[in-house]
Design goal:
With 610 residues, the protein is an alpha+beta fold. The chain has helices at residues 2-12, 79-83, 92-112, 118-126, 158-172, 234-249, 276-281, 285-297, 302-305, 331-345, 360-366, 395-405, 413-424, 429-440, 447-452, 465-486, 495-505, 507-526, 532-547, 559-586, and strands at 21-26, 28-32, 43-44, 57-62, 76-78, 144-149, 152-153, 173-179, 186-190, 205-210, 254-255, 263-269, 308-330, 347-348, 355-356, 370-371, 380-381.
Length: 610
């Protein structure tokens, strides 16, 4: 099914690639005239400052899989084949054979297509011009060198395509016809898949990788080599390899993160222009609003009902493509899944007070280790693939599957995130979103509690108790910060910084200890600091919260209790800060003292430490 969908994608693409051709960078250009006489020196087409031309200009190049055998391409190849140049470590005898094979292929092309560009290249070799071309100082073994005859790129002409299709077909074909597993038609069958995917697009591969490969009898069914028991016709083999290579190399249709050990490619079959990946990763507000309003407005396009979302996740093992995941789903179902994803993970930002959605990559990033800044500077999450990142290796793709396909979350995700919050002392919107997502999709959470688990503080939600004492902890921390700020004192360590990790595991000790501190803070607030109204507001808020608790749990023995505590703390903190910032901005009287003007962070995405 995967190969069929890749073939369908190739057939709908406007970029048509001829049989047994591929797009590759051709670095060196050699211009000759119709008599084979060089017109100038080799010209480099590479531009190191341009990522698209770093290794040369992309052109259509005759290409088939080349392993240990000598297999020249037509009118464009590396320096060993074209000129017999010796690179470091090359074997002279083999290079001589490669060069001879290239010249023989040119001679055969010139004989079959005498009116084409082949005779000019054959004359270039016959008259000894090749021996006069010296290798450039910055030439490397992998550089491709192409011929231009009277200004025309010889490898991409009609006569070159005709001749190369026959040559490549003979090399890769079995010489027999049969029923193709992909298209279901009786066609000439391939012996091996004709092309490979460059290793840079297949994480884990150490060589250019093949989609299907049975090079040894021991690898095949009934000890049969090649594609004997996997009949694939030449047309389908070329199309699905071309399509997969194009998807994996296109940043608009693929993504890969260091350390995640895979690369994801996706495409939509049908006439829909909806981009699921852009919706969950680029977070275009207009697109999200249109998606969320679709069912209510009744404007869902009928074309989406007829379109299909496809994605494939690949890794590599030496020279083999490993398909880690393959998905095909109706597009309208994917859109429903994305709506549920936003409903389940969106969270209030503690700095701005706004409900935000988080990129999938940022959620995966926030699950790694947080590294505090030096000398009070801003910290950051350790990069993907860095040493000691403490981030699950496949988390990004698991989260993406949960977003687009509503797959279950990794079972250990909630425990992992809670441990990172406790160890790092770091809680921001992304980590709070992961906590809420894990709770909303917890298999044992009743439906009525799932609906009451809102992105912002739900003051009517009085169960479970862990949510309440998370709110209490946030109020205690805010009270201490307020007293210190009004007194003009700098806190070396806040209440939350000192006790947050302990409170997650054992709230009783922290809450009891905090109550003793609270009385001293309230007394100071209404006495020397002269803020009696603020003192009463904090006291009233704490009393209302304690009334909702029948008893303070001795420890948060359940994993979900720890998650409820963290969520209650985050949402209560966001609620208080939003009111304080609003009071400061509007210069209105408020019971709780407003935040100072410099309380906002330098960037919205970094948030606050716990």
């Amino acid at each position: 099914m995967l190969l069929q969908r890749l073939v369908e994608y190739a057939e709908t693409s406007a970029d048509i690639i001829p049989a047994f051709y591929a797009r590759k960078p051709v670095r060196w250009r050699l211009d000759i005239d119709a008599n084979g006489v060089p017109q100038k020196e080799l010209i480099s087409t590479a531009d190191k400052s341009d990522p698209e031309r770093r290794f040369g200009v992309q052109r259509l190049v005759p290409a088939v899989t080349r392993t240990v055998g000598i297999s020249p391409a037509l009118a464009v190849d590396n320096g060993e084949y074209v000129f017999g140049w010796l690179s470091e470590g090359a074997k002279p005898d083999r290079v001589a054979k490669q060069h001879d094979a290239f010249r023989v292929l040119i001679s055969e092309w010139a004989a079959v297509e005498p009116d084409g560009r082949g005779p000019a290249i054959a004359a270039f070799y016959r008259d000894g011009h090749a021996s006069k071309i010296e290798p450039p100082a910055d030439w490397s073994r992998g550089d491709l060198i192409g011929f231009w005859v009277d200004g025309v790129y010889a490898a991409d002409t009609d006569e070159a395509r005709r001749f190369w299709a026959r040559v490549a077909g003979d090399r890769k074909g079995t010489g027999r016809s049969g029923l193709c597993l992909v298209c279901g038609q009786v066609q000439p069958l391939l012996k091996t898949v004709p092309q490979q995917i460059p290793r840079r697009w297949v994480p884990g591969a150490t060589q250019n990788a093949s989609m299907v490969s049975v090079n040894e009898a021991v690898h095949g069914y009934e000890l049969q080599k090649f594609l004997t028991n996997t009949p694939i016709c030449a047309d389908c083999g070329l199309k699905f390899m071309t399509a997969l290579t194009r998807l994996l190399s296109d940043p608009r249709h693929s993504t890969s993160l260091p350390g995640q050990n895979a690369r994801l490619a996706w495409w939509v079959l049908g006439d829909s222009t909806f981009d699921p990946w852009a919706t969950v990763e680029q977070l275009d507000p207009a697109q999200i609003q249109s998606l969320l309003a679709g069912p209510a407005s009744g404007n869902a396009a009928a074309v989406d009902d007829l379109s299909r979302y496809c994605s494939v996740t690949v890794g590599g093992n030496v020279a083999r493509v490993v398909v880690r995941d393959w998905v095909e789903q109706p597009l309208h179902q994917v859109k429903d899944n994305i709506r549920a994803w936003f409903d389940d993970h969106q969270i209030v930002d503690a700095w701005t007070g706004e409900v935000v959605q988080i990129k999938v990559s940022q959620l995966a990033r926030a699950a790694g280790r947080f590294e505090a800044g030096r000398n009070g500077g801003r910290g950051t999450y350790v990069a993907f693939g860095a040493p000691n990142e403490y981030r699950p290796p496949d988390l990004f793709y698991r989260l993406l599957g949960a977003a687009l396909l509503k797959r279950p979350l990794p079972p250990k995700l909630l425990n992992h995130v809670i441990n990172r919050i406790r160890i790092d002392g770091r809680l921001d919107a992304a980590r709070a979103a992961l906590i809420r997502l894990a709770l909303r999709r917890h298999p044992n959470l009743p439906d009525h509690e799932r609906e009451r688990l809102t992105p912002t503080l739900n003051v009517e939600f009085q169960r479970p108790p862990a949510y309440i004492y998370g709110r209490i902890f946030a109020v205690m921390d805010d009270l201490q910060r307020t007293v210190s700020r009004l007194a003009g004192q700098n806190l070396n360590t806040t209440f939350a910084e000192r006790y947050f990790g302990r409170a997650i595991d054992n709230p009783q000790v922290v809450i009891v200890s905090g109550r003793r501190h609270v009385q001293a803070w309230l007394k100071r607030l209404r006495g020397p600091l002269g803020r009696a109204n603020s003192s009463k507001a904090y006291e009233r808020l704490l009393d209302d919260l304690f009334v909702q608790l029948h008893a303070i749990p001795s420890s948060a023995v359940m994993l979900t209790d720890k998650a409820w505590f963290i969520l209650g703390y985050h949402q209560q903190r966001a609620e208080m800060r939003a009111k304080q910032l609003a009071a400061a901005a509007n210069k209105k009287k408020a019971d709780l003292p407003p935040e100072p003007d410099d309380a906002a962070p330098t960037t919205d995405d970094e948030g606050d430490d716990a």
